[in-house]
Amino acid sequence: MIPLSPMQQRVYDEIERCQKELGYTPTLRALGETLDVSQFTVAVHIKKLIQKERARRINARHIVLM
């Protein structure tokens, strides 16, 4: 398994937390606010998670973590 950068791990952990506690994937905006980064930055890290096969996109909003 390809290791994640610290920021990718933070994004992964926050998505996982929201899915467990709230039952849904957070928006890019919500992730950005929580992690204190832009929505664009979150989108880039999610793309990297998908490339590293640690997540996959179900539709435009829903992500499944591996």
What does this entry look like structurally?
- There is one protein chain.
- By secondary structure, the protein is mainly alpha-helical.
- 56% of the residues lie in helices and 9% in strands.
- The chain has helices at 6-21, 28-35, 39-51; strands spanning 55-57, 63-65.
- A two-stranded antiparallel sheet has the order 1-2.
- A hairpin with a 5-residue loop joins strand 1 (55-57) and strand 2 (63-65).
- The longest helix is centred in the N-terminal third of the chain and has 16 residues, at 6-21.
- The radius of gyration is 11 Å and the shape is globular.
Name the strands of the widest sheet in spatial order. Answer: 1-2
Query: What are the secondary-structure elements, in order, as H or E?
Result: HHHEE
Q: C-alpha Rg, in Å?
A: 11 Å
Helical amount among residues, as a percent range?
55-70%
Structural class: mainly alpha
Q: For the report, how would you describe the main beta sheet?
A: 2 strands, antiparallel
Number of beta-strand segments: 2
In short:
The chain has 66 residues and is mainly alpha-helical. The protein has helices spanning 6-21, 28-35, 39-51; strands spanning 55-57, 63-65.
Question: Layout of SSEs?
Answer:
Layout: H1 6-21, H2 28-35, H3 39-51, E1 55-57, E2 63-65
Antiparallel strand pairs: 1-2
Helix pairs in contact: 1-3, 2-3
